[in-house]
């Protein structure tokens, strides 16, 4: 897949912007704060239905405006596709594909991207929520209908937590007559999400191992696993050295649902006391292992960077194999400045055969010369020359 044209209206700091992009590497150069990342953020949003920088859409709309427009022309082989999205500060977003109305949740069927940014170091060193979000965004790109499952689970979770808080506020004597109903809905959506994540992690493992070797060399072994609260992982545990639970790498939805129900029953009193749901996929963690040890507790700074890069390269690899759109657009947002010369060269080699790569950099010299074939210069929300 190739993004041949990008047009923005009232997106971030752009009143209007039009960018022509090319197959192969594209380099966006400009000082910090000029709008380079905003361009790639817009492309990434179409694929994941979210920003890698903010959690709400309102921040994507230019100050003083109520909506932003992202319009892209995509090339899938000989097929051309026009994808348009209106991002609203208030109310639902609206989408079109080839000028026909479309559901926003279906956009990942047409757009596939993998974006790596300096913030992604938190995938290794940060909290579980970032790793869960990465898994879910990749799941949605591979199976767009799961956007509905993730959204439904989050909605039911909010409703159930509200009910638990109400019971706690009423001196533990609130009305819990509807809790069983919410439990079953939570289990239905949650067990599907648990199994989808586990299956994805199993498919990702060889890609991660290969990507880490490509970036860091053959002397290290990278692996993935899951810690799952419904199978007994403590919801209060925040130990970065905790290992993955390899016993439950392959489970059915029925097995996951039964374990989920048992967990909710066992934790019911604690949940009422605390006013929050203590088991489910929202409490799980993707464990990154390096040479048999959890990377979060043991990896050096350089090893953490290599692992974060490996995760994104693995995502690109699995999309290349499984996505109907073929190669994803690989986006490297201000990454090369963070790498030494060896890792820059190895990363350039690892991404060199993807159909399209978009790179942002404050200093052109940070980027290997082979990736600086098509250069766009960005200044104060404008593309100033090519």
From TrEMBL:
GO function term, MF aspect, one: single-stranded DNA binding
InterPro entries the record matches: DNA-binding_RecF, DNA-binding_RecF_CS, P-loop_NTPase, RecF/RecN/SMC_N, RecF_2
Residues reported to bind ATP: 30-37
Domain RecF/RecN/SMC N-terminal, chain residue ranges per copy: 3-364
Pfam families: SMC_N
Tagged with keyword Nucleotide-binding: yes
SUPFAM superfamilies tied to this protein: P-loop containing nucleoside triphosphate hydrolases
One Gene Ontology term, aspect cellular component: cytoplasm
Keywords, ordered alphabetically: ATP-binding, Cytoplasm, DNA damage, DNA repair, DNA replication, DNA-binding, Nucleotide-binding, SOS response
Transmembrane intervals: none
UniProt keyword annotation of Ubl conjugation present: no
GO BP terms, alphabetized: DNA replication; DNA synthesis involved in DNA repair; double-strand break repair; SOS response
Domain of life per record: Bacteria
Localization terms from the record: Cytoplasm
NCBIfam families reported for this sequence: recf (TIGR00611)
Function as written in the Swiss-Prot or TrEMBL entry: The RecF protein is involved in DNA metabolism; it is required for DNA replication and normal SOS inducibility. RecF binds preferentially to single-stranded, linear DNA. It also seems to bind ATP.
Family: Belongs to the RecF family.
Protein name: DNA replication and repair protein RecF
Species for this entry: Schumannella soli
């Amino acid at each position: 897949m190739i993004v041949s044209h990008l047009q923005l209206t009232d997106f971030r700091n752009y009143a209007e912007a039009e960018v022509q992009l090319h197959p192969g590497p594209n380099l966006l150069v400009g000082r910090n704060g000029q709008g380079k990342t905003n361009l790639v953020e817009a492309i990434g949003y179409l694929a994941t239905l979210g920003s890698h920088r903010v959690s709400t859409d309102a921040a994507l709309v230019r100050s003083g405006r109520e909506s932003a427009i992202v319009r892209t022309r995509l090339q899938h082989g000989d097929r051309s596709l026009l994808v348009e999205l209106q991002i609203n500060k208030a109310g639902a977003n609206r989408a079109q594909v080839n000028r026909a109305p479309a559901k926003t949740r279906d956009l990942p069927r047409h757009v596939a991207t993998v974006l790596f940014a300096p913030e992604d170091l938190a995938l290794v060193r940060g909290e579980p929520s970032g790793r869960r979000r990465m898994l879910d965004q990749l799941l949605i790109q591979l199976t767009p209908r799961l956007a509905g499952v993730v959204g439904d689970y989050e909605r039911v979770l909010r409703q159930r937590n509200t009910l638990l808080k109400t019971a706690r506020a009423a001196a533990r004597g609130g009305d819990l007559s509807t809790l069983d109903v919410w439990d079953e809905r939570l289990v239905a959506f949650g067990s599907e999400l648990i199994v989808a994540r586990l299956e994805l992690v199993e498919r990702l493992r060889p890609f991660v191992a290969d990507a880490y070797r490509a970036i860091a060399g053959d002397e290290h072994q990278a692996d993935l696993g899951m810690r799952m609260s419904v199978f007994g992982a403590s919801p209060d545990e925040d130990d970065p050295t905790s290992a993955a639970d390899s016993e439950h790498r392959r489970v059915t939805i029925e097995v996951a649902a039964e374990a989920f129900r048992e967990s909710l029953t066992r934790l019911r009193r604690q949940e009422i006391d605390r006013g929050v749901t203590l088991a489910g996929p929202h409490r799980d963690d993707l464990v990154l292992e390096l040479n048999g040890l959890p990377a979060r507790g043991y990896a050096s700074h350089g090893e953490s960077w290599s692992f974060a890069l490996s995760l994104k390269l693995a995502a690109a690899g699995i999309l290349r194999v499984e996505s109907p759109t073929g190669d994803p657009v690989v986006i490297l947002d201000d990454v090369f400045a963070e790498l030494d010369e060896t890792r820059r060269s190895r990363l350039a080699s690892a991404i060199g055969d993807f159909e399209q790569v978009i790179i942002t950099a404050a200093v052109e010299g940070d980027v290997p010369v082979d990736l600086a074939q098509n250069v766009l210069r960005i200044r104060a929300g404008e593309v100033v020359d090519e």
